[in-house]
Amino acid sequence: MHLSTTDYGSYLQNVTVAEVVALIADSIVHRVYITTCFLFSPGLLYDVNKIFASALSTTESRTKKQDVRA
Known about the structure:
This protein is mainly α. It contains 2 helices and no strands. The protein is 83% helix and 0% strand. Helix 1 runs antiparallel to helix 2. Belongs to the KRTCAP2 family.
């Protein structure tokens, strides 16, 4: 079973919970970290999502090619 196929609730809910946990952890260290975490997180999440989607599509195309050959 692939982790991306497991249902852990909605994507937005997961991202929101992760963001809140990160902001709380950052607030323990320093107030400036909260701001930078909040500002840079959407961009980093977008990049990671794009990389994951690219890797997933490559894996799916390989699987389809192997199924055709079999």
